[in-house]
What we know:
The protein is an alpha/beta fold. It is about 35% helix and about 30% strand. It has one domain (about 1-220): Rossmann fold.
Amino acid sequence: xxxxxxxNLKKFYGSGENEVHALDGVILEVEQGEFVSVVGxxxxxxxxxxxxxxxxxxxxxxxxxxxxxxxxxxxxxELTIFRRRKIGFVFQNYNLVPxxxxxxxxxxxxxxxxxxPDSKYIDSIIETLGLTEKLGNLPNNLSGGQQQRxxxxxxxxxxxxxILADEPTGNxxxxxxxxxxxxxxxxxxxxxxxxxxxxxxEEIAQMADRIIxxxxxxxxxxx
Length: 223
C-alpha cells in the first residue's frame, strides 16, 4: 500500500528568463515500510521535494497524499497538526531543544499534541538506538552522532506515517555516518517505519531499499 503519493508536483521560482523549475511534474509513490533515498546534485530539487512531502512549503500545483490524506487541502493550522501526528523529521542540524534533556526531547512532539507517550514503545526505541544511559543528558553534552540518534528517536516516538530525513549524516564523520545509517535501517525494519531520505552521498544512499534520482526538478530514475 502506498503511504506517500505525489501527482504532477510543480514548484517554480523567479520569472521570465530567471525562472527556475525546482520541481517540474514530480510523480512519486512510496510503499508503507519502504526506505527510499533521493539523490541529486545541489540545485537538483531534492530539498524542495522534501519540503513539499512534509508540508513545510506549498507547491504551485500538484498534490501530495500522506496516509491517504491530501495534505494541501488542509488549512495552515490543520496542516500543522497533521504534520505533528503523521510526519517525523530528521534534520542535518538535529534541531534539538538545548534546554531539554534527551528523554524530554524525544517525547516533546507527543506532549505538544496533548497525548500520553507510549512508554513501552519509546523504551524500545531508546534501547534500539543505544540511548538508555543518556536520557538525562542535555544535547550539548552529546556527540553529533548521539544527537542525531536522539533526533531519530524523536521522529519515531509519535508513530508517524513517514519519516523525512534531510541529509541526516551531513554533519557526521564517515564512521558515525555509517553507524547512524545502520540504525536508521534497523529502525525502519524493526518498527515497519517508512523513511524518505535526502542525501548527496551515493554510498549512504545505497543503504536504502530504493534510490530515486532527481535532476533539474524531474525524477530521472528509480520511480
